[in-house]
Amino acid sequence: MEAVIFDMDGVLMDTEPLYFEAYRRVAESYGKPYTEDLHRRIMGVPEREGLPILMEALEIKDSLENFKKRVHEEKKRVFSELLKENPGVREALEFVKSKRIKLALATSTPQREALERLRRLDLERYFDVMVFGDQVKNGKPDPEIYLLVLERLNVVPEKVVVFEDSKSGVEAAKSAGIERIYGVVHSLNDGKALLEAGAVALVKPEEILNVLKEVL
């Protein structure tokens, strides 16, 4: 293997519960319920596509700009209070670097938000290549973000390992020609859906290091 590609939210960081809480608070402010099933619909999807989905599903009668502003304000509050890295992730990144294998990030999160979180947790320094959701025209499950990462890494899909926690992310990597995709499971995603999308196996964040020791 020549490279390892990580998604960010839910894989490197325990962020999905934070997104859920932020969206729940915003939905509640409109008098609407927010469910885990609805949250799964937008996991891994770029915000520019996810927010209209939420507005329609919740039947929110407001402008997209107002809704977006309220979401951003709530996310900022929640993330400033509760952001943390997933257990075992730093050790996994250190292991990959010790093998002199390239590391890349492929996240649907916009660059400014992603870098703020990566820097707060001191994770940015591990990555040779990073591609963000606002740097591609088509978000996951379209393969564009993975094709761009592969191009910048200058590696072929057969020489890459991917860790993703969303159905759309697994589908994006699969459509880019990558076969060795591991589905990272947590309390808010659906492991069965990851396998159906093409993940070769399911792992918890703290198990990523053991997987890397086997495949690198």
Distance between the termini: 6 Å
CATH homologous superfamily placement of the largest domain: HAD superfamily/HAD-like
Number of strands: 6
| CATH architectural type of the largest domain | 3-Layer(aba) Sandwich
In CATH, the topology of the largest domain is named Rossmann fold
Tally of individual helices:
10
Describe the fold and architecture.
With 216 residues, the chain is an alpha/beta fold. The protein has 2 domains: 3-13 and 85-215, 3-Layer(aba) Sandwich (Rossmann fold), CATH 3.40.50; 16-82, Putative phosphatase, domain 2 (DNA polymerase, domain 1, Orthogonal Bundle), CATH 1.10.150. It contains 10 helices and 6 strands. Strands 3-2-1-4-5-6 form a 6-stranded parallel beta sheet, sandwiched between helices. Strand 2 (102-106), helix 6 and strand 3 (129-131) form a beta-alpha-beta unit. Helix 1 (16-29) crosses helix 4 (64-82) and helix 5 packs parallel to helix 10. The protein is globular, with a radius of gyration of 17 Å. The model has no long low-confidence stretch (mean pLDDT 95).
List the defining traits of the structure above.
216 residues; alpha/beta; Rossmann fold; DNA polymerase, domain 1; 6-stranded parallel beta sheet; 10 helices; 49% helix
Q: SSE layout and pairings?
A:
Blueprint: E1 3-6, H1 16-29, H2 36-42, H3 47-58, H4 64-82, H5 89-98, E2 102-106, H6 111-120, E3 129-131, H7 144-153, E4 160-164, H8 167-175, E5 181-184, H9 191-197, E6 201-203, H10 208-215
Parallel strand pairs: 1-2, 1-4, 2-3, 4-5, 5-6
Helix pairs in contact: 1-4, 5-10, 8-9
In short:
The chain is α/β, with parallel strands linked by helices and 216 residues long.
